[in-house]
Design a protein that fits this description.
Length: 154
């Protein structure tokens, strides 16, 4: 399995199409949640995904401080094949990219509340009470001490 990390401007049109289609398939169609998936933040992101033979398996985007939060942030985390460790692998790569590309010491994300244990396994901690985003309960989470780590839990 290959890890790919590219800035928006480096994406081919086919790659961009595959990434956006996966996001719409998971976050809009599968979760039955109509919302504005295209949010004008993709242009500022590093897009990270796992693929094999051109097939997308997992994805997320990483943004620098000041785009979504005062911290570097990770968002749009998804896997297309679940229960195979792909979510943990792509999240570890996202943590690495945040540290290497943006010099992140702390990483911010907004997680669906059911996914809290998944993020905690990789060192994130809950930093807010639940709140709704497009009718789905979320929490803010932070991961401290990113630089110099191996991307695993602290």
């Amino acid at each position: 399995m290959t890890v790919v990390a590219k800035r928006f401007q480096e994406l081919t049109t086919d790659e961009l199409y595959r990434l956006l289609k996966a996001r719409v398939d998971v976050f809009v169609v599968e979760q039955q949640c109509p919302y504005p998936e295209l949010d004008d933040r993709d242009q500022a992101a590093v897009h990270v995904w796992l693929e094999e033979s051109g097939e997308l398996f997992a994805y997320l985007r990483v943004m620098d401080r000041g785009v979504e939060s005062e911290f570097a942030s990770i968002g749009r985390v998804l896997t297309l094949r679940r229960r195979q460790g792909l979510g943990s692998r792509v999240l570890s790569e996202g943590i690495r990219v945040a540290a290497e590309v943006f010099g992140a010491d702390t990483i911010y994300l907004e997680a669906q509340t059911y996914a809290r244990p998944f993020y905690e396994k990789l060192g994130f901690r809950q930093a807010s009470d639940p709140f709704p985003i497009d009718g789905i309960p979320h929490i803010r989470m932070l991961r401290d001490g990113t630089r110099g780590s191996d991307g695993g839990a602290d």
